[in-house]
Amino acid sequence: MTRLGIIGLGDMGGAIAEGVLTGQWDDEVTVVGYDVSEAAMERFTELGGTPAASVGELARQVDLVAVVVIDDAQVRQVCQGDDGAIAGAAESGALVAIHSTVLPATVIELAAEAADAGVALIDAPVTGGTPSAQNRDLVVFCGGDAAHTERGRPHFERYGGMVLNVGPLGAAQKAKVARNLITYVEFAVAYEAIALAAAADVDLGAFAEIVTYSDRNIGAHVGVFNRPPTYPPPALGGSFTRIAHKDLGGALALAEELGVELPITALVDQRIDVAFGE
Predict the structure, then answer these.
(1) What are the residues facing 102 on neighbouring strands?
(2) Which helix (H) or strand (E) holds 139?
(3) Which residues contact 156 (CB under 8 A, 6 or more apart)?
(4) Is the Cβ–Cβ distance between 103 and 96 less than 8 Å?
(5) Positions in the chain short of pLDDT 50
């Protein structure tokens, strides 16, 4: 029997709960949840989850406490205190996994506090978004004792398609912010591209089709991460930077003509030599 506790039933925590509760399992799975939102608790209960009256009560009933709240302050709030997750886990022997994206120092401090109470706590951020959570296909990457990762693996695999240890305590949080950097920068520059295309009277529906079709083979993720990445990046040859400057320069020239501001594109034009290892 698996006893999983989820603290925070918002977008991600709620999706994790939904994925586990609607999955088909060979053994019995109990999911205990807690959220300050009554609406979130109602949705969770309707899915078949077991509501807890407090985080401490939750942690006293489960084998894994998954913390899926928003920020450092909330992580501290739910983990610390006489009725917090650490105190509850000290009674049940549960492993505490911080799925929230927080500062490495926060996890390290809480892990030390947990260890004093005889509780194992690891950083275990997730990536893949709510669709992956609902489909039980998140990536769960852990920082800390590899034995703790293996201890959590049977639970993580209820909602994660990939579970791996990336280094010592705090390493997973560092990996998460680096991974998120790609997402936010891509969003920002994608909207610069859309702004330029719109100003140039390009059909945006057709533009979207072009990008989604072509990028399945030539997108940055394919070009960089489908082979072992290295740093500093390997020099790819002068033709790469010449072509990059030509293309970026064309975009900047068109933007100037149309009165569109492309600050990220301009910065990339200044730094693209470094990106290509030149």
Answers:
(1) none
(2) strand 138-143
(3) 97, 124, 140, 163
(4) no
(5) none
Report whether 248 contacts 275 (CB < 8 A).
Answer: no
How far apart, in whole angstroms, are the C-alpha atoms of residue 130 and residue 22? 14
Tell me 216's DSSP state. H
CA separation for the pair 123, 101 (Å, rounded) = 9
The residue behind tokens 């590899």 is: 146
Determine what percent of the chain is predicted with pLDDT higher than 70: 94
Q: Is the peptide bond before 229 cis (omega within 30 degrees of 0)?
A: no
Identify whether the C-beta of residue 89 lies closer than 8 Å to the C-beta of residue 95. Answer: yes
Query: What is the pLDDT at residue 261?
Result: 95
Give residue 239's pLDDT.
72
Domains and CATH numbers, the chain: 2-168 (3.40.50.720), 175-275 (1.10.1040.10)
Please classify residue 3 by burial: count the beta carbons closer than 10 Å to its beta carbon, then call 0-12 exposed, 13-18 middle and 19+ buried. Answer: middle
Catalytic center residues: 176
Res 275: pLDDT: 72
Q: Check if the beta carbon of residue 37 is closer than 8 Å to that of residue 69.
A: no
**DSSP strand pairing (50-51 vs 29-34):** parallel
**pTM reported for the whole predicted model:** 0.88
Q: Got the DSSP string for 160-172?
A: EEEEEEEESTTHH
